[in-house]
Amino acid sequence: MELSDLIQTSQVENVRVHCPFKPPMIGTLCVSSHHLLLCDASVGDRDKREDIAELWLLHCAVDKVEKSVQNIGRLQNTENGQEMDVESGSGTVTLRCKDLRVIHMEIPGMEETLNIARSVQALSSLDIVTLSYPFFFRPPGYSLGHGWPRDTMENFYHKMRAETDDWRLSEVNLDFKICPSYPAKVIVPRICSDETLQKAAAFRQAGRFPVLSYYHSANQTALLRSAQPLFGTAPHHCKHDEALLNAALMEQSSGFIIDTRSAQEAKQARNEGGGTESKSRYRNWRVLHRPLERGHALQDSLVRLVVTCYDPSIGMTRWLSKLQAARWLSHVKEALSTAGLIAECIERECANVLVHGEDGTDNTLLLTSLAQLILCPESRTMDGFQDLIEREWLQAGHPFQLRCAQSGWSQSRAQQESPHFLLFLDCCWQLGRQFPRALEFNERFLCTLATHAYSSEYGSFLCNNEKERCQYEVQDRTHSLWGHLNQPKERQQLLNPIYQENPLVIWPSVAPQSLQLWAGEASCKIITRYLLYSSCFCMQVVYSMYTAAEYFGALDTLSISSI
């Protein structure tokens, strides 16, 4: 398949483009295989201008294409005085981007308008990994392989091995046959054989058996993650899975299992073969249900938020009402409070924790990564945070290609899309706002990650798991985002100038007055629009997001003793 076959019109003159935070541009619009380009005709001598105004947009960054055209006009023929139909119409193509920008293009000619819209729509909706731009991107001065790999499991294990010998690095999944969404190597209890792991994997959804996510050296406790057990409608058990979890307790007498579904949802999952750990079989583990929204519900929340923030016609009261109905801040609150609960179990109760939901690739990873950010000072550094994303999101099997296929502009029912990674970055921003000196990276870094997760020139966020990245030779054929961001010039712009290392646990507040809607900088905001005029101060009015009972009953952190 040739991408050029999808381009119906490759170039149009005298196109006017309106981009956020930039003056209107008029110039030549070009459609290439991967980009939409506009060179501003008003810049004059290009050799004398460094700040050339232009549009340079990846097709994969477009979330939605809208078009409108005007009727064909009737003009008079100057030779015979008769009227005739001529193609004097024009049209507008509106591009709603995954980073939530809105770009308007006024194009002369109806046919050109329709062709441009069809071309961008076709090129932006391609789902063929090897035809994506990272496989063609070759920036000068960069060599393939730079920045790969990032924090392999071996590096993480060797750091942990200095603290304990109770765990080992297993290659049971070296060929990805045991679990397609796990990395080739995983960390498991030392006393568990690979045979035990294989049989435990058969008892967990998609083969995602319990593995180590984080080791808290301060009190020798561990954070694990997995998928749900497969008990089925006629309950059966797996002694190997039970042995694996008992071995994971190490010297602790008991541990906690955080199920990201409600008790009712876990019970209903049994009708489809799933379920949650039973008290009779896992006597040393206590199950706590902390339901978090996922899938369509979370995607719909983002869509509602975007629609609300880009509606300039609503007044203050209605804006706040629609903001509350979107429930995005409620998701932020639940994620932070549950992560705080996990951290409390580990830090204050000195107990091991296992986190899982249904498949263990979305809310599970959201919670384990947030818990590490709360507990571990190293995770709050620039390098440590990159390692955390690599280990807990990319290597752990979050399906970025499916989840980030569309952003907040899609009005159609979500298929596999869900903004879990965007929710994670929002929670990180909340932590950075509550603890301004605790994070070595700044807001711009979070916005950059959000942008590249949805559309990127680099291969770091391609595919759905490590197996697919190996299959498409991503490390050998594309550039690493980390290699780019860690260049001295780029890195300097992403650092927090007031960062000060904090060896303590940072306990997030989930009280209503502590959470705000992430507006972001004007140049890189992700969650909401460049709010119009007086609506800006609505960001402070977060009290309306909760009922009075929730406000007065909110705690800075949840207490395990209250469960």
UniProtKB/TrEMBL annotation:
One biological process term from GO is: phosphatidylinositol dephosphorylation
Q: Which residues form the signal peptide?
A: none
Q: Which gene encodes it?
A: XB5960519
Kindly list the GO molecular function terms attached to this UniProt entry. protein phosphatase binding
Give the matching SUPFAM superfamilies: (Phosphotyrosine protein) phosphatases II, PH domain-like
Going by the entry's taxonomy, the superkingdom of the source organism is recorded as Eukaryota
Q: What is this protein called?
A: Uncharacterized XB5960519
Hey, which family's this protein in? Answer: Belongs to the protein-tyrosine phosphatase family. Non-receptor class myotubularin subfamily.
Organism the protein comes from? Xenopus tropicalis (Western clawed frog)
What are the GO cellular component annotations?
A: cytoplasm
Occurrences of domain Myotubularin phosphatase (ranges): 147-522
